[in-house]
Write a structure and sequence with these properties.
Layout (H helix, E strand, L loop, with lengths): L1 H35 L3 E5 L7 E2 L13 E4 L8 H6 L6 E2 L2 H7 L2 E4 L1 E17 L4 E4 L5 E6 L7 E2 L4 E6 L2 H15 L17 H20 L3 H10 L6 E4 L4 E6 L6 E2 L6 E4 L3 E9 L11 E5 L6 E9 L9 E9 L10 E17 L4 E2 L4 E6 L4 E6 L1 E6 L2 E6 L6 E5 L1 H17 L32 H7 L2 E4 L2 E4 L3 H20 L2
Antiparallel strand pairs: 1-2, 1-3, 4-22, 5-25, 6-15, 6-19, 7-14, 8-10, 8-13, 9-12, 10-11, 12-14, 15-18, 16-17, 16-19, 17-18, 19-24, 20-21, 21-22, 23-24, 26-27
Helix pairs in contact: 4-5
Amino acid sequence: MRQVRRIGLAIAVVVAIAASYRIGRHYGHSEAGAKSGRHVLYYVDPMHPAYKSDKPGIAPDCGMRLEPVYVEDLGNAPASSSLAQLPLGAVSIDGATQRLLGIRVADVEKSSGTRTVRVVGRVVPEDTGVYRINPGVDGFIRETYQDSVGTLVKKDQKLASYYSPDFLAVASGFLAASERVPGSVGTDGSRTMPFPGALSKQGVSSLQGYSDRLRNLGMSDVQIKRMADSRQLPENIDVVAPADGLILARNITPGQHFERNMEFYRIADLGQVWVVAEVYAQEAPYLHPGDQAQVTLSDAGRQLPARITDSLPQSEAGGGSVKLRLEVNNPKFILRPDMLVDVELPVHLPPGLTVPLDALVDSGARTRVYVEHGEGIFEPRDVETGWRYGEQVEIRKGVQPGERVVAAATFLVDSESRLKSSARVSAPARATDSPAGMSGHVAAGITVIDPSCGMPVDPAEVAKSGNTLAYHGSTYYFCSKKCKEKYQNNSAGTASKQASGR
């Protein structure tokens, strides 16, 4: 009986000592904080900084004692603690490394107003100012006169002459009709009717019919007037320019036989031309028909005003660019077809937040930037972009005014972020994806993750505690013995299911 009492007394003493130790530790932290003038904000697991508690005690997953976090220390928290509070993919790069790699940051700025988009345009003739000259008869070419492609011509300038017997009968009828209507063709080419009455009307109608037939066969008004004045049948039919312009095409040579409706020449009136320019699809919504523009000849340095007409229908949807058509007055024909010119388009941009274009990391499916958090910590942030102008791009969603983003060597920061994200996500899934690899050696700069609970661990400290596991040729690191056993049990269960075929 005495022995039982002694044992019970001993147990009570041990319990009392343990309770007093815990109470003393709790008050010790409080007293230490009070003595040092610091205030405990919460308690964290030293191996799992994401776990927080408002009371001291033991971490439920790893069994380690919780450590206090003081309000005064938050401003000087290490990068690892700050990284734990940020989304997956955040990286920490010290200032010396940033300078070595050329990493620079830039402010997120508010921008608006009018910008000038500079593109290259190509001169094309207006389709309504292109003339195609062809005959309505068969015949052969007698001569041509200064009709090379690219030659500027004047209205009614003689370009070629040809012979066709089909003109003789119609031309003879025209002369006979003009004799029956005295004064029908004046010296200025206008028709007069000095003798009213049925006969006069019939004669004028006949004369008009013969004139139309001659034009339909290919005779010009200039030659019809000359034939009426001379009262003689022409030996050849003249081909003349229908307007001031440029010869775009020539398909005849002297002595050539031709058939009716063959195209002799194609001539463009260059008094007003089009300039076709291509802009980014993001800029197109801010360019409207009627907006003024400016065309500059790079060689001559001359500037001409232009006006946007509309978007061309052949602009391909989803191609990333839109073709614009501009009208330009060209009185001296200094703009020629297929000439390249510089085009300046004023763009009125709505106000918005902008970042440098080099700050974007565009993978096609998503676009992101890296936002600076404190000194040397960068967080990946998905963003929605708007208009782009020069080296600036609008950010419609994802950043706030006053934030700073990586604007140079962004691809290096992105590479580091991808490496860390890959290690954290894939380590618990497959043995082949373990950061330790086949040799069990941890590469420098790679965050090692506990595959059981997903928290970062220090490989050196884990190796000292013996919480490592070699499995299928890879070495795993665990924050506690409990996590190691949990992973072993899960791995054994998976292997058993695979062996049984379930």
